[in-house]
Amino acid sequence: MAVILTCTPESCHSLAQMPADRAYALINAPKAVICFFDFQGDASEQFLEVIALMSHEYMTSIKWIIVTTDNPTKLEASLKAKNAVAEVFYDKQGRLLDDFGVLEVPTIILTDEDQIVYKHGKYSPGHNERLAEVVSSFAQGRKIPESYPARVLKVGDYAPDITLPSVSGKTWSLSDYRKTKNIRPHLLYVFTIMNCEPCREALRFLGNNAHLLQDTEVIVVSLGPKKLTTSELRRMPIPFTVLCDEDSSTYAKYHLTDTPTLVLAKGDIITYVGTGWNIDREHEFLQAIARRK
């Protein structure tokens, strides 16, 4: 059963300052991982998959807690299906978000005794490697490593190779594509989560403007489960090759932090990188297309 929490604003640095009953519920363990979660996030399912895997690996040394303001019954069912070892706390009024200074979900917080020792918000699948290292260090009592230097994909960089299965099951790779007779001079990678509304808008825009991309091979790299990708494609077919990056390895290889991200390349060289989607991004992308001709 989910525990319903009611609370008043407290310090987000010391859990010991919380009311005794709530503090007991949250930190009845020397070490705890507190995850703030709802199902509206673009990478919600990927986040739960990662939490399920780590909670199994560190079930004896860490207490795993997931706080939600959104449908605890659904969350409990999803965790059970993934065999996650975690407790669900239903923060009905959302006051814990303020208590902990949580601005975006999913957010993950690590507590040792009554102190917050690590906090990270705006999760994306590209954070999995870093998150695994942080939790491993925390569980084993080692110092949590310093943040990685920023690694950002930039114009002028070499485009990393891609080898992924398409939705049809056939493997697509950049190296094989370059050997084909009908190779086009430009490549456009669209990194997306198919149920992300800005991603849908970007794909609709590209589909409606496919006539501007006749010299461009458009490759959609879809993060998350293949089942989600195929389901969304039935709702909104698109005239492009769609690849499945289920473990987010290609997303991580490109050092991306959000979706949608559009990456234009000529040969091996990246000529444009754009993250997010709105009217300004549309104009920016059209200008990038025009400049390359």
In a nutshell, what does this entry contain?
The protein is an alpha/beta fold and 293 residues long. The protein contains ten helices and 13 strands.
- What is the percentage of strand-forming residues? 15-25%
Note the main sheet. 6 strands, mixed
Gyration radius, to the nearest Å?
A: 21 Å
The CATH fourth-level homologous superfamily of the largest domain: Glutaredoxin
Summarize model confidence as the mean pLDDT.
82
Helical residues, percent:
25-40%
By DSSP, the count of extended strands is 13
> What is the first-to-last residue Cα distance?
60 Å
CATH-derived topology of the largest domain? Glutaredoxin
Class by alpha and beta content: alpha/beta
- Continuous helix count: 10
Secondary structure: elements and pairs:
Blueprint: E1 3-4, H1 20-27, E2 31-37, H2 44-57, E3 63-68, H3 72-81, E4 87-90, H4 95-99, E5 107-112, E6 115-120, H5 128-139, E7 163-165, E8 171-173, H6 174-177, E9 186-193, H7 197-208, E10 216-223, H8 226-235, E11 241-245, H9 249-253, E12 261-266, E13 269-275, H10 279-292
Parallel strand pairs: 1-4, 2-3, 3-4, 9-10, 10-11
Antiparallel strand pairs: 2-5, 5-6, 7-8, 9-12, 12-13
Describe the overall structure:
There is one protein chain. The protein is 32% helix and 24% strand. The chain contains ten helices and 13 strands. The chain folds into two domains: 3-139, Glutaredoxin, CATH 3.40.30; 163-292, Glutaredoxin (3-Layer(aba) Sandwich), CATH 3.40.30. Residues 1-24 have low confidence and may be disordered. With 293 residues, it is α/β, with parallel strands linked by helices. The N and C termini lie far apart (60 Å). It has helices at residues 20-27, 44-57, 72-81, 95-99, 128-139, 174-177, 197-208, 226-235, 249-253, 279-292; strands at 3-4, 31-37, 63-68, 87-90, 107-112, 115-120, 163-165, 171-173, 186-193, 216-223, 241-245, 261-266, 269-275. The strands form three sheets. The chain has a six-stranded mixed sheet, with helices on one face. Strands 11-10-9-12-13 form a five-stranded mixed sheet. Helix 7 (197-208) links the parallel strand 9 (186-193) and strand 10.
